[in-house]
Write a structure and sequence with these properties.
With 326 residues, the chain is α/β, with parallel strands linked by helices. The chain contains 9 helices and 12 strands. Helix content is 27%, strand content 23%.
Length: 326
């Protein structure tokens, strides 16, 4: 469904006073992945790692600095806006904040009619019936269309956001932290809803989240990002049960445990994630890595495929070095 090849995005930072360039932020720095039809790829990493920027690049809400994006084998990274307009309905997004994602001046019916009208999904005489169908699809009443966003709870607003994303009958949806603003009980309802809709319509998802339990629940595969690069990717059970990259191990060790009383060896990373304006040399993780070697400071590790089909970017798995899980 989606293939990303050497995708990069740089942002020029300008002085607010003089308007001169202060530097360049490497938000996404050469990443590759594929998302098959009906599959969910979970994208995890600390704030500032480039997750949301990656999602927006795929949707062409941002223009890539370099690299290719393919939708069902077609390169959509360089086509004109006019050519892309016909493909817009195939690529949709569910935003993070349900309170700011909906226009408070519009009724829910008007919000859902907009994509139907723009992309000519159904004729004008069918708008109301289609709105009712979309609302019922996400567990709301068809009569809710006459209400305004402020009349709904956060979970209900997120259901409306999902209905809007599905209005164009897309093939691929970016879920950008869609449950982070919701309480735990509502989170489970929204997550189960997205999975049910995926099964019903064969949707493909890029699911971006900080919460590792959310990623494990919804994803088939996982990609771990650090400073604009993917450092490890593979099937969800392999990544969660046997993480290989030192950064992935640190993330997994920090996740809350569902079993009270069970001990786990927490890996506490030193310092903060560096600025994208001043990336460390060699491996970008070396200044925080508990397994750092001399080569890490000077040479960037290549992505290496292991026996279980996962891919890791770490010198521990290169140049004939054996795996050290200690």
């Amino acid at each position: 469904m989606i293939e990303v090849v050497n995708l990069k995005k740089q942002f020029n930072i300008k002085s607010k006073v003089l308007g001169v360039n202060k530097g360049v932020v490497n938000a996404v720095n050469g990443i590759d992945f594929k998302i098959e039809k009906g599959e969910t790829l979970g994208l995890v990493g600390e704030s500032g790692s480039g997750k949301s920027t990656t999602g927006r690049l795929i949707l062409r809400l941002l223009k890539p600095t370099d690299g290719k994006i393919y939708l069902e084998g077609r390169d959509i990274s360089t086509i004109s806006n006019r050519e892309f307009r016909s493909l817009r309905k195939d690529l949709q997004i569910v935003f993070q904040n349900p309170y700011s994602a909906l226009d408070y001046k519009m009724t829910i019916e008007d919000i859902l009619i907009q994509p139907l009208q723009i992309h000519k999904i159904v004729g004008p005489l069918e708008y109301r019936n289609e709105v009712g169908r979309l609302l019922q699809m996400v567990g709301l009443s068809k009569h809710d269309g006459k209400k305004f966003p402020h009349e709904f709870s956060g979970g209900q607003r997120q259901r409306i956001g999902i209905a809007r994303a599905l209005a164009t009958r897309p093939k691929f949806v970016v879920c950008d932290e869609p449950v982070s603003a919701l309480d735990v009980s509502v989170q489970s309802q929204i997550l189960n809803l997205t999975m049910d809709l995926q099964d019903e319509f064969g949707l493909s998802y890029l699911f971006i989240a900080h919460d590792l339990s959310v990623i494990k629940h919804v994803s088939n595969k996982v990609a771990v990002m650090y400073l604009g690069k993917i450092v490890e990717k593979g099937y969800v059970d392999d990544i969660f049960d046997f993480p290989k990259h030192p950064y992935t191990k640190a993330l997994m060790s920090a996740a809350p445990l569902p079993e009270p009383g069970r001990n786990i060896n927490r890996i506490r990373l030193q310092g903060e994630i560096p600025s994208g304006m001043n990336l460390p040399s060699g491996c970008t993780f070396h200044d925080r890595c508990p397994n750092k070697m001399d080569v890490c400071e000077t040479q960037e590790p290549k992505l290496t495929e292991l026996d279980d089909k996962r891919v890791v970017s770490c010198h521990l798995y290169q140049e004939g070095r054996s795996n050290n899980d200690s």
